[in-house]
């Protein structure tokens, strides 16, 4: 059981090139399989943290590995979405590019302050992950952007603002920060308890 968190992360790593390859070579016929694999990847992401905490293998190295895998996992699904739904992506390219800029800024800020990449696993980032799930389900599964696309964009902005505040408030690099409020508590040396399922 102790090896399961790493195996779950490796499973998502394997999926990263699979999504765009399926979309490129098989097109519309693999919309449903991509959606199914996306949900399996999300389930693995949920349970790797729960199992890691339960069996006390939740190390900094594991969380950093998890964070970077998640980034490329969602990016690969986004590329698949672009291949399958180019018109929706083109129409909203400005909004999408702004999210990439915010992602890059968060990494730059983290490296400038701490010499490491971000690994906050904030609540807002988890909420954004769920909004992306709904967005990609709608776009890949049903060829529709609309409401779920725009709610993912808005939640993405909120999530990046939260992460930027976390990085500015933290006195030192730390992983697993639920929110900017908790970063403030760390800055003031005020103890708080994390939920066992949080990572």
Could you explain the architecture of this structure?
The longest helix is centred in the middle third of the chain and has 25 residues. It is globular, with a radius of gyration of 17 Å. By secondary structure, the chain is mainly alpha-helical. 76% of the residues lie in helices and 0% in strands. The protein is built from 8 helices and no strands. The mean pLDDT is 92.
**Distance between the terminal alpha carbons, to the nearest Å?**
18 Å
Strand and helix order: HHHHHHHH
Structural class: mainly alpha
Number of strands: 0
Percent range for β-strand residues = under 5%
Mean pLDDT: 92
Which quaternary structure do these chains form?
A: single chain
Based on the model shown, name its key terms.
199 residues, mainly alpha
List the helices and strands and how they pair.
Layout: H1 4-26, H2 31-54, H3 60-84, H4 86-91, H5 93-114, H6 123-142, H7 146-169, H8 180-187
Helix pairs in contact: 1-2, 1-3, 2-3, 2-6, 3-6, 5-7, 6-7, 7-8
Please outline what is shown here.
The chain has helices at 4-26, 31-54, 60-84, 86-91, 93-114, 123-142, 146-169, 180-187. By secondary structure, the protein is an all-alpha fold.
